[in-house]
Amino acid sequence: MSDALAPWNVSLTLAEHTLIVYALSVAGLALFAFFVKSWVSVNEVSGRYRTGVYAGMCITGVAFLSYVLLVLEFALGYDRRGDSWVPNANAILSWAPRYFDWTVTVPLLVIELIAVATLAGAAARRLRAVGIAAAFLMISTGFVGGVVIDSGTDTGALWTWGVISGVFMVVLYFLVIYVVVKGGRDLRGSEAAGTLRNAGILLIVTWMAYPIVFGLQGWGHGGAVLTWMQVVLSVADIVAKVGYGALVHKVAKIRSAEDVRAGVDTMPEALWISSEKRSDGVLPSPAHVAVTGGRDDLRRADR
Questions:
Q1: Taking 80 as the threshold, does the pLDDT of residue 5 lie above it?
Q2: Secondary structure of residue 293 in the 3-state scheme
Q3: Which residues contact 211 (CB under 8 A, 6 or more apart)?
């Protein structure tokens, strides 16, 4: 059976083509802007939670590069013929790089969340491994059905691999819910608990856009459907990577400030959130420096 919509085989009107270019360009610029913002503000977070910030930077950096490729290939993959844009052999690359992006960034979204939650040690490592594996398998199996088999035109393969991908998505949903619920319980009474919950809810809700668009490939036809698919995915990427990343970054800053106030960590400068001072700058004590230096010496000796 070969009647599924291959998004890269659809001709577009002038308006549809313009809307897609706009959506792709705005998404790419938003991702780049958040990457820069995260880069310059990394020192606002203590070392304990900085892995989450680094993961967010990798996510938006990789996604930005994929959108640059999407825009370039979209420009090269369609030929203007009168009042229509007709796809050529390169048009598939105006779609496939999304899967390349997600294969890397969805596992990083899991790392980003766990890094600022309350899991630590072996428990964090186990859950991180499960999340990375489930995320990778969710995207790679979707890629097989949506792009690889018969160039994404086999409805049977699309739905079969879509269901397989959906199983791994359910695993991810349970993982995110567990992390958020545990964090809410451990951080009860802290502003970080509510922000962590909001980040988890935002991620779960936004992820629903992807299987919906994947399903459209199974029954939708025409340029209007393709336009909606591209626009919805671009918006979802902004929300899932920039909006979610901003919430995770806020959790990291709140918890950093709480650690400084509790005397369990230090930061050289005062920490501010929304122009509100959350903690003073605290330099490490001589005893802390001596202990840290000793640990560094041991690490060097181990090497």
A1: no
A2: helix
A3: 162, 165, 166, 169
Two tokens at 298?
């041991």
Chain position carrying tokens 């997600």: 102
C-alpha span between 58 and 25 (Å, rounded): 19
What is the rounded CA–CA span in Å between residue 232 and residue 158? 20
Which residues are paired to 12 by β-bridges? Answer: 85
Rounded-to-integer distance, Cα 56 and Cα 32, Å? 12
Spatial separation of the C-alpha atoms in residues 83 and 249, rounded to whole Å: 46
Q: Which helix (H) or strand (E) holds 43?
A: none
pLDDT tens-digit readout, 53-106: 999 999 999 999 999 999 999 999 999 999 999 999 889 899 999 999 999 999
Task: Tell me if residue 153 falls in helix, strand or coil.
Answer: coil
- Parallel, antiparallel, or unpaired for β 84-87 and 276-279? unpaired
Residue 300: exposure state from Cβ atoms within 10 A (0-12, 13-18, ≥19): exposed
| Nearest CA among 23, 26, 16, 22 for reference residue 80 | 16
Measured CA to CA, the distance from residue 289 to residue 30 in angstroms comes to: 40
CA nearest to 169, candidates 212, 227, 229: 212
Name the 3-class secondary structure at 271.
strand
Name the CA dihedral angle for 7, 9, 11, 17, rounded to a multiple of 10 degrees. Answer: 50
Alpha-carbon distances, residue 93 vs 6, 74, 104 (angstroms): 12, 7, 17
| The pair of three-digit structure tokens given for residue 64, joined into one six-digit string | 């930005």
Dihedral sign from CA coordinates of 244, 249, 252, 258:
negative
Question: Against a cut of 0.85, is the pTM above it?
Answer: yes
In 10 A of CB 112, how many CB atoms? 29
